[in-house]
Amino acid sequence: MSSTALLLASLAVGPLAVAGITLLRQHPNPREGLSLAAGIALVIINLQLLNALNSGAPPSWRGPDILPGLRLELAVEPLGMLFALIASSLWLVTSVYAIGYMRGHDEKHQARFFSFFALSITCATGIAYAGNLLTLFLFYELLSLATWPLVVHAGTDRARHGGRVYLGVLLSTSILFFLPAIILTWTTSGTLTFTPGGVFSPDTPPVLIAGLLVLFVFGVGKAAMMPFHRWLPAAMVAPTPVSALLHAVAVVKAGVFSLVKIGVYIFGLEQLNAAASREVLLYLAGFTLLAASIVAMRQDNLKARLAYSTVSQLAYISLGVLLAVPGGITGSGLHIAMHAFGKITLFFCAGAIMVAAHKTEVSQLRGLGRQMPFTMGAFLIASLSIAGLPPTGGTWSKWYLMLATLEAGALLLVAALIISTLLNIVYLGLIPVRAFWPTGSESSAGQLREAPLACCLAIGITTLTCLALFLYPQPLYTLVSRIPGAGG
């Protein structure tokens, strides 16, 4: 199979899986086996595309013209390859987890769940391999629509309200900001194709560049920059595998990935650095990562705390690209991956606690360590990764982001990063500490009751990956360093 055919096949895996899941909807074992097979197939395809990229012949595809010079395009480049590998590998692991969770929690409409799960990863793959802004926008909007049924899966009034907030914020930011930014880019530069170094000529009016940057940052609502972040906590009404999908695999990563890609391939670091609005947006990112951390500390519901933690961690990635220095791009690229594995582990643990112990509040978890030692141990390791502490992969992404902030001379943002890290330790790290070492009259005794095997298997894989990325970050770093403008 040619590399171009492989590229197109990566978008066909999901729809084919949906067709098979629909046919097998009354047969759980074959249906879920098909979901796993589709996940394995997509990982294999993406690895072959990585080989093509490494060989110096990156695949691409261009559709017919919709308007003169305006068409759908697909292209494999290092940043997109990074996102595609993360999305496909974690889709496979999340599918394993979802099988145990959905059965253990006796969820209804499981065939529908796995169908939209597959469609969501197809949309994320389309975003990863988008060759221009038109293609990115198409798959970006399709991702919002494909994940909405997952958010409202429970069918309760609360779920429907959460779904309205979710879709309302994401669609409104796209229509009001993202689409106008794309149209202005087209009329100004004459192209929407992602180009290393950017698409704007040196004589583009500075006020236009500044305005476009504002439109893109707020238009990519999935990046959850304040004040357009409410959709993310609202979506926590979804089943935990969906929360994991939203926070680590597809939606939020699609947002920050899009910001990095636009920064690198539409603006370029030189134009980005010269934008008059960049510094204001940079400090907004700093405010977001601090404010969201403070809000997270006040949340007793575990998934709500993790949601606000995600808002904060996404701001790290946005901050990295807005620094407009090579180290910032490196740090942002690494943090897309490091946060993905750390945060998905935390959500896996939250779901395991709900299935096995029927607890959803942080205040209920004291003393749970002896009943669920595997789950709470994994929670501790993932918390260290989110905080950026050894021996976990998050250490390296936070390291590069800190160096980039120092390189840019933004001392207030250096302080914000340090304070946020300390807050991470408090609002995440103390949870497993209190679970293993309760104080006062809190009992830590109880019968061992871990989640179903499929859930524990998925937790084990992502937890080990958090550790492995600390010891062996070089393959990931090598890929990230090939992003135009990145550097150590």
Automatic annotation (TrEMBL):
- The regions listed as transmembrane in this protein's record are 6-24, 36-53, 79-101, 113-131, 137-154, 166-187, 207-225, 245-268, 280-297, 306-324, 336-356, 368-389, 409-430, 451-472
Mind telling me which Pfam families this protein's record contains?
A: Proton_antipo_M
Main localisation: membrane
InterPro entries recorded: CPA3_Na-H_Antiporter_D, ND/Mrp_TM
Keywords, A to Z, come to: Cell membrane, Membrane, Transmembrane, Transmembrane helix
Coiled-coil spans are: none
Instruction: Give every NADH:quinone oxidoreductase/Mrp antiporter transmembrane domain span.
Output: 130-423
Of which family is this protein a member?
Belongs to the CPA3 antiporters (TC 2.A.63) subunit D family.
PANTHER family noted in UniProt: NA(+)_H(+) ANTIPORTER SUBUNIT D1, NADH DEHYDROGENASE
Q: What is this protein called?
A: Monovalent cation/H+ antiporter subunit D family protein
